[in-house]
Design brief:
This protein is mostly helical. It has one domain. Helices cover 80% and strands 0% of the residues. The protein is built from nine helices and no strands. The radius of gyration is 18 Å and the shape is globular.
Length: 234
């Protein structure tokens, strides 16, 4: 029979494969099933629903195959003040660090803004439900799977907290490569590393979900009102 580490390995592979498949082929599948042509607000909404289905699939694998707690790291409780300070600190670290990396990439390789991101941004114009649902999906699903599920299992398999942090951050960055630019890999890798270190130190996934939602929500709202071309340097 497969040992627990083997089950963890299969679960990690399942999680990454399903997420990558949704990122790469989600719109094609939605188009085939529904007949919706191109990327529209409705097809994008359905592609986010597919991401929730990935979370459900991993949850079922954990429940019936691993038979272990979904979150191997027990959630620690903190005060409201700690929540506020942590969210603000993480947000500032990610935004300032991401901006610096983006400027550095612009200087080194003169990278253009992601065409896919520009295309997707037009879908969010004044569609506040889509903005909130998209940010909520990213915050909850990505944090539960990348930090809550994958990171501690890699740490258990290799008995290495450092590998847990690095590998989970690398997978997080690779998943964003579908946007087609180096920056959309490097910056998520940086954010994934910051989040993974926080999760290792403080064992609280809720704070990361809130901060992830906040980063995406503020970014999408800014692009909604200002436009991505004016924010491209950031």
């Amino acid at each position: 029979m497969m040992g627990l580490n083997g089950k963890y390995s299969v679960g990690i592979l399942l999680t990454f494969t399903l997420l990558a498949a949704v990122m790469l082929y989600g719109f094609s599948v939605v188009s085939t099933v529904t007949g919706i042509k191109g990327i529209t607000p409705n097809s994008f909404l359905l592609s986010r629903v597919a991401i929730w289905m990935v979370l459900a699939a991993v949850f079922l694998y954990n429940l019936f195959i691993e038979k272990e707690p979904f979150l191997l790291k027990k959630e620690k409780q903190y005060s409201i003040v700690f929540y506020i300070k942590s969210v603000i600190s993480l947000y500032l670290i990610c935004v300032v660090g991401g901006t610096f990396l983006n400027i550095l990439l612009q200087f080194l390789i003169h990278e253009q803004t992601s065409h896919k991101l520009v295309q997707l941004t037009s879908l969010f114009k004044n569609d506040y439900f889509l903005i909130i649902f998209t940010c909520f999906t990213a915050g909850v699903v990505e944090e539960l799977l990348m930090r809550g599920y994958i990171q501690p299992r890699i740490e258990k398999i290799y008995n290495s907290p450092v590998l847990g942090i690095i590998v989970s951050a690398m997978l997080f960055g690779i998943l964003h490569s579908t946007y087609g630019t180096v920056g959309q890999v490097v910056i998520p890798f940086f954010i994934g590393t910051v989040f993974a270190v926080f999760y290792k130190l403080y064992s609280n996934i809720r704070i990361l979900i809130i901060c992830h939602f906040m980063i995406d929500f503020i970014s999408l709202m800014a692009m909604n009102f200002i436009g991505i071309k004016h924010l491209s340097v950031f």
